[in-house]
Amino acid sequence: MKLSFKIFLGICIPAIAVILIISSIVIDKNHQTNLEAERLAVVQNVKDVERNIKSVKEDVSVEIVELMSNSYEKKDIYVAYYDDENTLYSNIGNTGLGQEDIGAIEYNKYVADVKEHNSNFYVVVSTKLDDGKVLTIIKNINSVFETRKELINNCIYIVVISIIIIGILAYIISKTLTRPLEKMKKEMNKLSKGDYDIHLKEGHDEFGKLAKNFNSMSKELEARNNELIESANNKQLFIDNLSHEMNTPLTSIQGYAELMEKANLDEERKSKYLRYIQDESKRIQDMYKKLLLLSYKKNSDFEKSEVNMSQVFTEIGNTLEDRLKKAKIELIINNQLNSLYGDETLIIMSISNLIKNAINVSAPKSKIIVNAFEMNNHKYIQVVDQGPGISKEDIKKITEPFYRVDKVRSRKNGGAGLGLSICKSIMEMHNGDLKIESELGKGSIFILEFPV
Ligand code: ADP
Question: CATH number of the domain that 329 lies in?
Fold first, then answer.
């Protein structure tokens, strides 16, 4: 059964029951009051006749009764006056009631009774006078019962109208109360079909609060769903890029190997092709090592210790000396850090990576400056170059695996677009961060931020 129908019945049934009970109580009370009034009126009639009988001599008492009865008869009131043996006066025969219908009679008491005869209703009041004679007065009270009938008819009329009004009100109330639930049901259906665009009206009542929770739940679900989609897309992108990056050097190796097998080559060409094969194999090996390092992060069971930074920079300087000379670039290192807490190999790898990238993009005779310092509870290593800079869009994507800004140049330099994503992973392993500040045409600053 629908909730709105339950609410509808929940309002209608008790309301109608209350109206019916109140109506019947009112009708009954009114009827009893009218009956009582009629009883009292007839008792009063009996008392009046009794008083008149007592006020005259005994031999004219019957005439008095008859006289009064004549005036009563016009009002549908009938009198009987009798003793044990004779009926002294009676016109109660007009009512169809006989003396046998008269109930118990007591001395100086007025016993009132309601009798029905041939669908007529009467109040019968009798009393036994001091001399043993009985005085009975019967009054037709059909009007009282007709009043009750009329009242019942009116009540039926009122109850029917009330039921219609209550029904309409109950319908409006049930619809108003269940409207937010209906809306919620519709939105739930939308949500189950993957539509997260849900804006339920919020408020301070129970439905309003429920709507608020529902809105935030749908937002949360949307965010989670987007995350899942993004993660799936990233994985797919990673696989696509990886297969592309692996395929390129493998195709080259296969091509050069086939050339060496088929053609009659002189020694110079042979050694040139062999060098190409070696370079491409190295590229694959390099990529394999880097990918291994990226996955290593997930099993981040690496050794941390206090790393001596002047040793680190000396080692980096020595390793990159040839490259720097070849590119005619000056490397300036301003080191103010004694040590850094972390994995030495990984720290060297990330700094070298940044400097190598800077060398790749820098023009001959330019400078690369490395600043290492401590500030605001963090240790920083900045690599500043005077290269072409990076656009805002590229900065957002530059740390994604296989992403390269200048694809041709990067590949020529042996890069697969993995260097910065490895740097980022290394920084995450150290609870630090990789930050990039750059603007096209104004060089770049790559910052490794370590917590102290
Ligand atoms: P790769 O190993 O190919 O160099 P990286 O992840 O280290 O890959 O760098 C991604 C790309 O970011 C590079 O291909 C290059 O185009 C760009 N990039 C890196 N460092 C700089 C820099 N200092 N200035 C300008 N572009 C840079």
Answer: 3.30.565.10
